[in-house]
Amino acid sequence: MPGPRLPACYNAFPNTTLRMPQVPQDFGYALENAFGNLVFFSPVALRTPPGETNRIFVVEQGGKIWAITNLSAPNKTLFMDISRRVLNPETGLTAWLFILAMPLTASSSSDTP
C-alpha cells in the first residue's frame, strides 16, 4: 500500500545546473599547534589578563586552568584545579573571567546618594 500522496509543491526535482568539483579545492589553510607540544584536555576558553602580553590562561572543561608563560617558548603551569568540584565533566567548566579590582572612590561608594 503506497504512502500518502504529497501536494505538488513538495515534489523534489534534481538540480541540473549545480556543478561541484570532483576534488574539493585546497585553500592552503592548515591547523597548527599554537603552543608547541603542550597538550590540553578539552580546552574551552583562552583568557589573557588585561595589560599582559606574554601570559595566557587555558581553561579545560574538566576544571583545570593552566597558565602559559613565555609565549615564544611556551610552558604550562597549573594555575587552578577545581576538578573535584566539577560534578559533571561533560558540561564542566565552560568559562572563566578576570575580575579587575577597582579602587573604591567617593563617586562609586554605595554610601553616596
Quick rundown:
By secondary structure, this protein is an all-beta fold.
Task: Summarize the structure in words.
- The protein is an all-beta fold and 113 residues long.
- It has a domain of 50 residues.
- 0% of the residues lie in helices and 21% in strands.
- It is built from no helices and four strands.
- Strands 1-2-3-4 form a four-stranded antiparallel beta sheet, with no helix packed on it.
- β2 and β3 form a beta hairpin.
- The radius of gyration is 26 Å and the shape is elongated.
**pLDDT averaged over residues:** 78
Distance between the termini: 79 Å
Helix content: under 10%
**How many β-strand runs?**
4
Which stretches of 5+ consecutive residues score pLDDT under 50?
A: 108-113
Radius of gyration: 26 Å
What letter string, H or E per element, gives the SSE order? EEEE
Number of helices: 0
User: Hey, roughly how much beta strand do the residues contain?
Assistant: 15-25%
Label the overall shape: elongated
Strand order of the largest sheet: 1-2-3-4
Class of secondary structure makeup: mainly beta
Biggest sheet overview? 4 strands, antiparallel
Topology:
Elements: E1 43-47, E2 55-60, E3 64-69, E4 75-81
Question: Which key phrases capture this entry?
Answer:
single chain; 113 residues; mainly beta; 21% strand; elongated; disordered C terminus
